[in-house]
Amino acid sequence: MTIEFNGQVAIVTGAGNGLGKSHALELAKRGAKVVVNDFGGARDGGSDGSLSPAEATVAEIKAAGGEAIANGANVASFEDCEKMVAQAVEKWGRVDILINNAGILRDRSYGKMTTSDWDSVIAVHLTGSGNCARAVWNQMKEQSYGRILMTTSTSGIYGNFGQANYGAAKMGVVGLMNTLCIEGAKNNIQINCLSPTAATRMTEDIMTPEMLEALKPEYVTPAAIFLVSKDAPNHTVMFAGAGTFTTLEIHESKGKFLKEGHRSADDVAENFAAINDMSDPDVFLSGTEHVVKVIDNATKT
Ligand code: NAI
């Protein structure tokens, strides 16, 4: 095994089931000490929660000779996340890896979506990922080492009927990654996103048995492991499912500079094909780079 995590400590949220469990088992197999977090609620985030799913994953890790502890934090609570990080540091002295994986669904077409559907999904996926990252951030800074993985989704990147709340939260974590990459750079903290496709309780009712067989969570985990390894890339969104691995690039067109007096809405409409021409796109690593481009265009003519 080339990728190993000997001496490293990892936190995996939502690791009592599905993808998180698969990630936690593989991290432990490769030498990491793992905090197995799971709130233990229902798929929609309802019910009071239970430590049993996290404990079951811990038992599997220990049975295979690995080291792990269970944690029942609700990632939507920053206080819970702080305690979870404190638990890891107290036990093992550091936190090298955070995999933000915990998630719930409250699917509903937008006209029928309630405030509670919206708030609860944003709270777990977006605020939860932000909470966990914020809770480990200073520890990673002190260590001058950290690998954080956000779990995004095609529902956010491309859209999916009935998942406006979920899609917004999942694209939100891509935005969170973009800025954390900039802020973490000087302390060797790297952040990536994983967009999985897997058969879990989250997707079991929308897939046929053949699809479920092709989409084992274990086929996604290699991407997660690579993205939190020492030699991981930074600022990468990787899709993984059923053996297909791809990456996403956010780019913008070169665009068209419209001179003063020729930049009305009608001019924009007339020039839309050129504005939208993606044949020679720009890729930027910060918002500032876009601003430099527009100022450049305005001053060189
Ligand atoms: P899952 O439902 O099997 O696992 C999610 C786990 O998160 C559960 O064990 C649950 O108890 C835990 N959890 C929920 N709320 C929590 C909270 N507030 N605090 C701590 N733990 C909490 O679902 P699955 O499919 O394994 O999903 C894992 C991640 O992958 C999620 O973020 C999901 O949105 C994402 N994802 C999954 C896809 C798939 O095809 N299965 C597709 C795209 C994204």
Could you characterize what this model shows?
The protein has 301 residues and is of the alpha/beta class. It folds into two domains: 9-248, Rossmann fold (3-Layer(aba) Sandwich); 251-301. 43% of the residues lie in helices and 14% in strands. It contains eleven helices and eight strands. It has an eight-stranded mixed β-sheet with strand order 3-2-1-4-5-6-7-8, with helices on both faces. A hairpin with a 2-residue loop joins strand 7 and strand 8. Helix 1 packs parallel to helix 2 and helix 4 (115-143) runs parallel beside helix 6 (164-184). The mean pLDDT is 96. The structure holds 1,4-dihydronicotinamide adenine dinucleotide. Residues 13-14, 16-20, 37-41, 43, 45, 53, 74-76, 101-104, 124, 128, 151, 153, 196-198, 200-203 line the site of 1,4-dihydronicotinamide adenine dinucleotide (NAI).
